[in-house]
């Protein structure tokens, strides 16, 4: 068997173009590029072109993922490279990694093999500081809120109802639930609170959905920092904090330009949680990619039931654009898991499990079709896949009239994805329309949720807890019924039960809580338990990391 | 009266040189400069020249400061500009500002008037991300420690003795004392802990004293993260976390190159607390400044009793260098306060109070003389000073044989400091020796403390609390007697009582606690109460901040 190099080894061997040259070749005025070292740059928002001069958007999504990961980012990067390889100018737009998981389990999140964005060490570590700026802005607001309460609480915030929490870009379970403000009257007011991971901050979602600095400030102003004793929301604007927050985010709002291993330009910017937020890179990065490419290749979080649905209903709606094609990533091993095979037993051929698992893929294809956008399936190749397995997936799709190609972009880079690139380009070239939302934004929030669980998940219906019903009433009273819904659900199943793989039927979804993300501009519907601050594993990835004597990074596998 | 522009107005009108050009003119190979935007760059440690090729160091310190501030950074920047104005090539080395105080009371910390480092908005906000990297490294270690305890606590850390705390670069009193790890068995082990501000992190001191990456890793490895049930220190190295921390600090260790309003190069890098740490910019920045200037002009924290003493005994010792001259900043208004005048009543002439206050200055001059380095007094001019007052300070110094000049660098930039520059250059030119430490590093810690309080503060002696005496024993047992001492004392008085201004006599110093900063390489002696997490004031500076429509920052006065 071939001995493969690790991601970091491949990345460190890459021959990168200086970012000023990369930008110049794309047609970006070098004077407006702000270099961060020689291979990263921030691009000001003014560089986004008007809609009529922008290219088309290709959205990469997947079936319900398995704990091993399906390589969606790898396919996104690889497809961008492959499009350029077939002579179609493409620019990639990706989320930027969170440091917490990097130090915990994942080690890195820049794609993999020969389809990575580079310099991967920088992108995986502090990059251009966007997440740190969000952490600063978020926690500055928390300190301002607590200082307000400490100094008389003129806004009548009720600490028993919870106020604005804090965030850190660290996996730290000890901070999930804390009591702060202890130590006596000089040290604040004692109250229960906690920390989320930075990517779960509403400010991350705000930054990713803001259309310019004025919109950023409006969204920050609207964020709810708590409730007063009459139950009315109190906002960041009531505290007059939006100016300082916007100032702290002044650089972070600008998309980051880097490149892939094959010098395809990539905007890597923003990375909100894919459960309590919408899970896509920033609007600005996607528009920027479309401004300088015939195609912008971008991805959404988790599977199509969460990521693609939110891309259509939240991100595309906020950005006023539509994808022209969707690439749905499937893997033989995930399909076998959906067909009942155990997750540590996926290396041998099992056509029966595969066949059964295909109904998970089938459901997602139906969903994309419901949005009215052409779909192409990418079978992301893994070493243990057999030809019979791969062929069965391809024929299953093609029999339904869905173009399907294997993607060997991990092993071969762009050259391993040319068939996929041709199919995706053909689909996008042929589509000049706009997607069809699955609900009208004017219908009540509870009906929007019902539409999603029935049309996208295949559920029979939805039940609301008493708390959620109360919040539906608050939403009505506050005049927020027109906001879109952001579903927080397990990514592993179409249902709200992570153990129900494949295509579960005859189930209902329970919404136990609703939260208003007024700045982000959506209502979060929480189903099942949602973790917003991860913990570290038994052996954290950090233990293997190091700086070598020559200054190179080690351990970011 | 002249109408003066605000600092940010002056800064925004400055004509900056592109940093690549600035570096090139200094003789730094552009290929090794890492630009952060067009006016900031990181310079790798390899660019430090061998000692024999480096220029001389001029240290700027002050008398005991008052709450209004004496303009020490302004004089440091102005002196750098003035040296260049008289044809002597000087490079400035300064601490980088902390975001917490910027959002709280101070608004900014880059010097002032026509003696500022720029771009001041960037430097005051996230700059090149150094403080964020330290926050990340510090809190990653905290998460690793808590995860270790959560997963069985093999190292037998005793949580009752306190373990590694967390930091944020925010003024947030609510986080000083918290209980973390609440919520049940999946969420860590409940324990009392808290947050310090990032500049109080031992990692900040480590970064500022590290002589290269190998030394950085050694220092990180030695940091004490807690004590086991037998009372033995447990270190970061026991947890094998130093590699990950060093990786997170890989960029942060490199000094940041910016410039002053008059295009004098300035390295702005590192900024440890001046009480529980040594309060100076990084060793690397100072060496870098000396590598590219005939003179490196640098400052230390607070007054000479704390800042200069620590510069000599901690920083210069770690760096193997000596300042060739000390510039001691005095102001008429501070001298009048030391002479008994109230702090809100300093605008009218009072030669009597001034005369009395001069003994504070006198004590600091004696201290610098004890170190055996030439001293020059800079009388930093303020609008309300009268000629009679200024003349009295100058004659007082000159009568003692100490060169003294006014510094009008706030109002006139370098042109307002040429006489000072000539005096400082003359003093430094004439001195080819090495300072004389006030204690031999081989004497016990308690004797080092006694030497400092007697020789530098003028105290009669020192008393140790029972807790401190126990720690002296631990220090002996652990073989750490040779470490230097880092005094944590009020900056406002030579004594440990902030209300005793002027030159107090007949007092003793009480050391209530000793802490081992094993990584930084010093023993912290705490006297009085020391605040390591500030709070926000009634009206935080953040409330005035904003981003204007043209993208410029507002409210960073």
UniProtKB/TrEMBL annotation, chains A, B:
Origin, by domain of life? Bacteria
Per the UniProt entry, the Enzyme Commission number(s) are 6.3.4.3
The UniProt annotation places ATP binding at 66-73
Reactions catalysed according to its record: (6S)-5,6,7,8-tetrahydrofolate + formate + ATP = (6R)-10-formyltetrahydrofolate + ADP + phosphate
The alphabetized list of GO BP terms reads: tetrahydrofolate interconversion
User: What broad class of enzyme is this?
Assistant: ligase
Q: Work out whether the entry's keyword set contains Nucleotide-binding.
A: yes
Q: What InterPro entries does the record point to? A: Formate_THF_ligase (IPR000559), Formate_THF_ligase_CS (IPR020628), P-loop_NTPase (IPR027417)
GO MF annotations, alphabetized: ATP binding; formate-tetrahydrofolate ligase activity
Q: Which UniProt keywords apply?
A: ATP-binding, Ligase, Nucleotide-binding, One-carbon metabolism
Pathway terms, separated by semicolons: One-carbon metabolism; tetrahydrofolate interconversion
CDD domains, alphabetically? FTHFS (cd00477)
Q: Which family does it belong to?
A: Belongs to the formate--tetrahydrofolate ligase family.
Q: What is this protein called?
A: Formate--tetrahydrofolate ligase
Q: Which organism is it from?
A: Alkalicoccus urumqiensis
């Amino acid at each position: 068997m071939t001995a493969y190099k690790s991601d970091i080894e491949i990345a460190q061997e890459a021959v990168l173009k200086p970012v000023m040259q990369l930008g110049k070749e794309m047609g970006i005025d070098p004077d407006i590029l702000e270099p961060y070292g020689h291979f990263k740059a921030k691009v000001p928002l003014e560089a986004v072109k008007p809609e009529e001069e922008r290219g088309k958007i290709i959205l990469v999504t997947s079936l319900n993922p398995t704990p091993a990961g399906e390589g969606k980012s790898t396919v996104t990067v690889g497809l961008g490279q492959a499009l350029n390889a077939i002579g179609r100018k493409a620019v990639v737009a990706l989320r930027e990694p969170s440091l917490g998981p990097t130090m915990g389990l994942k080690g890195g999140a820049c794609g993999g093999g020969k389809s990575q964005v580079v310099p991967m060490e920088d992108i995986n570590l502090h990059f251009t500081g966007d997440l740190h700026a969000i952490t600063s802005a978020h926690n500055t607001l928390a300190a301002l809120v607590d200082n307000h309460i400490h100094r008389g609480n003129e806004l009548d915030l009720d600490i028993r109802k919870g106020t604005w929490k804090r965030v850190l870009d660290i996996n730290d379970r000890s901070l999930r639930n804390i009591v702060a403000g202890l130590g006596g009257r000089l040290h604040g007011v004692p109250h229960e609170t906690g920390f989320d991971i930075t990517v779960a901050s509403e400010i991350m979602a705000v930054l990713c959905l803001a259309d310019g600095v004025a919109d950023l400030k409006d969204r920050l102003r609207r964020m709810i920092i708590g409730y007063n004793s009459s139950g009315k929301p109190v906002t960041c604007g009531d505290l007059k904090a939006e100016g300082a927050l916007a100032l702290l985010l002044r650089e972070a709002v600008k998309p980051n330009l880097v490149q892939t291993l094959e010098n395809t330009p990539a905007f890597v910017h923003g990375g909100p949680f894919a459960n309590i937020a919408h899970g896509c890179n920033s609007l600005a990065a996607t528009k920027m990619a479309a401004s300088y490419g015939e195609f912008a290749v971008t991805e959404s979080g988790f599977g199509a039931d969460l990521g693609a649905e939110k891309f259509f209903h939240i991100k595309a709606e906020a950005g006023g654009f539509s994808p022209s094609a969707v690439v749905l990533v499937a893997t033989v091993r995930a399909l076998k898991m959906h067909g009942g095979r155990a997750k540590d037993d996926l290396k041998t051929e099992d056509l029966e499990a595969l066949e059964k698992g295909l109904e998970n893929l089938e459901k997602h294809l139906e969903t994309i079709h419901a949005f009215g956008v052409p779909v192409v399936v990418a079978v992301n190749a893994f070493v243990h896949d057999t030809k019979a397995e791969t062929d069965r997936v391809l024929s299953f799709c093609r029999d339904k009239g869905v173009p399907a190609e294997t993607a060997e972009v991990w092993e071969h880079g762009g050259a391993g994805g040319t068939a996929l690139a041709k199919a995706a380009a053909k689909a996008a070239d042929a589509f000049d329309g706009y997607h069809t939302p699955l609900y009208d934004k004017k219908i009540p929030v509870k009906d929007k949720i019902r539409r999603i669980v029935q049309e996208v998940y295949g559920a029979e219906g939805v039940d609301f807890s008493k708390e959620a019903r109360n919040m539906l009433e608050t939403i009505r009273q506050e005049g927020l019924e027109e906001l879109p819904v952001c579903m927080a659900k397990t990514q592993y199943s179409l249902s709200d039960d992570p153990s129900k793989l494949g295509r579960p039927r005859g189930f209902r979804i329970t919404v136990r809580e609703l939260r208003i993300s007024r700045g982000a501009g959506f209502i979060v519907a929480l189903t099942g338990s949602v973790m917003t601050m991860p913990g570290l594993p038994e052996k954290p990835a950090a233990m293997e990391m190091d700086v070598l004597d020559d200054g190179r990074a080690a351990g970011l596998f």
